[in-house]
Structure prediction request, 284 residues.
Amino acid sequence: MMDYINRAKNFRTKKRLGQNFLVDAGVISDIIDFADISHDDIILEIGPGVGFVTEQLVKHARKVIAIEIDEQAIRELNKLECDNLQIIHQDILKTDISSLINEGEKIKVVANIPYYITAPIIAHLLGEIDDLNNKNRNSIESVILMVQEEVAKRIVATETSPSKEYGLLTILAQFWADCDILRLVGRRCFYPSPKVNSALVRLKINEKPKLDLSDYPHFRKTIKAGFAQRRKNIKNCLMNGGFDKDLVAATLEKLEIDTNTRGENLSIETFGKLSEELKNGNQG
Prediction:
């Protein structure tokens, strides 16, 4: 077994970058298994740090592209000296993923990212729900992501989950991907140990969005309004979101949605119907 902890201790981790290195060989091995890597695969590793996962990925993949923002970590990664490793010193949020591969190719993403930028990274990988032809998403086959456990629960939530779990991040992730939690990861699996437990999540990207709608920007506006004020019911949320009062009342009645229901109790499908009805009613 690699002596990950001592290797991690030799590196000055930076709190401002949210660096917590995965030092558990069992979890690293699971990531490799879950990623289901063949020798034809191109892997994009986001936030490789000092390369504990990277050095396993390169054994299995045709090519590993590692994107890291920290110069010191880059120096460590350069010591790996693998023919099939490309290291890019860049911020993933400023990276056009489609530019890293040839047309027609797809990559698998493996990411152990700073938790404070999880939502922006997911949005960057998937595109927004009304971004139907996002070139990053079109370049990705699947994403294995290490996230905070509570974020993992949000990604896989449904309208029957505890209310704070189901929200905009849920809908964004599930709109473009099949999402599941692969395993929980305790805080002791990292150095330095974070204050929260973690989980590995898989997003399998779909060719088409979850719903077939006539107007995706309108759908985005509808769900944004629906979750804008969590303590308010859907009727008030929609009215505060700029929808006409009478139209909202008529639409909720037509779809048999109780006006006192909150947004977090409506399924993605119901939000889709709501959006389409509000749009049609507006044109009538």
Notes: The two ends are 68 Å apart (CA to CA). The chain has two domains: 4-205, 216-283. Strands lie at 21-22, 42-46, 63-68, 85-89, 107-112, 140-148, 177-185, 190-191, 198-205. The chain is about 40% helix and 20% strand.
